Amino acid sequence: MVPAVTKLTFLVTLLPVWSNTFLVNRPNDANPDVFERDVTHAMASALGCGGAASATQLGDIRQALMPTWTSLPKNVHGQIDRSSFRYLARRYFSRFGIVVRGFEATRVVNGSHWGAADVLSERVPGYVESVLESQHAQERGFSLDDGVTLIATILQLLFDSESATLAQIYWEANTSLSSRITHGMMVAMLEDYMVHWLVGEDKEALVQLLHNDDALNQVLPRWESIQFFLAGEIRRFRHRHEQQMRSLTSPNSYSFEDVHDVASEITRSFASFWESECENMKMQLIRMDARGTGRVPLSKFYGTSLDSEWRFSESEAYLRELGALDETSPWHGKEVIISNYIQGTSNCIVSTSHFRVCCLNMCEHLLTEIETALESSTALPSDILHVVSTLVAPTSIDDEGTPNLPKTLITQLEQIAEASDGTIPLHGRLFQQWLHYVFPRECVFPHKAGLTSSVRPVDYEGDFHATDEEKHRHANGAQVVVHRLPDLNESIDWMSQWSSDEELFAEIRMEGEPFFSDVGLLLGGVVLVAVLGAGFGARGWKQPMSVSASRSTNSHFV
């Protein structure tokens, strides 16, 4: 078997050839059958050497996508638009705690730009672009089969993007990629891989940490636990391939592809392993959330940091950039939003040029249950309340596992429906905002598009780390007693961040009107990102009020 890095490098070399062929021969009036065939062919080509996902893998992806797909708004052909596809892909990868660059929820999407310019290049694969810029694509959109095929491709290329790092480790160990290595060498190779993966682009730190367990235990949290996790993944690999291993003359030897299979599984499962660390951090914040609103006073946040806790050291400006700071309450001052902070980029344990591994999104299973129960893109308030009232979240506001639904929130839900012809779009900012207040510790507060970003600490232009002076200033501010107004409504104060601005994930158009003009850029860019990653080594306070009937048609919150 040819190593994945070789296949993908070869693919990049062939892109201009395929581009010219498809641009010359691809008609713009493809019928549905031809379109489906060409999408599948283009994606299979992108996997290299005919390597397509197995029927089982495609079936698993389809099953995972189905609840969200069923609930997404469709056009007259029963298909979804460009924005919906980004949302579908983001929801899929969130199951693994993976955030793909270009698919972040903070990206602004409009009619002429899909929000990933920083990871695209002029070398867009023409063979994909020409297929998807056909008249059929613009008028009909994407089917579920298209989504399954595309996500399978992104998934494979995403995991393969780490091949270059693994190949570098082989080179540093003076080991040929065609060699079979012992079990001990495999463990050593993958431990080095984990260090590269966790440390990222800091070459100086890599030199100091590689093969230095004392330094690793000091710098990397739970390094010994990570080693146990790695040993478990190797055992799982041996179990999966037990029959194959027995047939070898040297059953305890491993190929490059074997080592890469384990590395790929690490990418898939690391967020689940790391979740205990995320839960510990979350419980620390919850203990500071005396009002049960999913918010922690900034003074307490920094006070804990000053008391020797190595976490909770992001600067005020960086917290604001991430969307983890609520500054709307005149009575409680600045507060850190627990769910937004946990999901923030600064808490991603792995951050590469093309994807991040972050804390699992605890709101994901709640959304999936809602979508499964309602099976529609819109729903009546009564239907939503019936479903949501049965959901269980261990850290809900009353800490009894069921959501708290006071009259204030029921009224807000009804007002959203009044501004939307009596029903509520499930894939819009207002419903997610409402869900945040129902489950404030699980579901993030959805800021309006363009107000926040997912910038990594290393890429942040300002100071992402708070100084001791800044921490002391905020911590000392907690000594100031703030008196409430006697007639203050507690629910209004709690929901001071509520905004009545709607932003929709998808925009359904009339039959015959072009669905989207840059769908080719969407898919071409996605495939290119993953291919290049492998080829080049991926390394004013406002009271809640009636919801405005106006909606954004040029900007999509996805």
UniProtKB/TrEMBL annotation:
Superkingdom, natural source: Eukaryota
Signal sequence coordinates: 1-19
Keyword annotations from UniProtKB, A to Z: Membrane, Signal, Transmembrane, Transmembrane helix
Transmembrane segments: 519-541
Protein name: Uncharacterized protein
Lineage: Eukaryota, Sar, Alveolata, Dinophyceae, Noctilucales
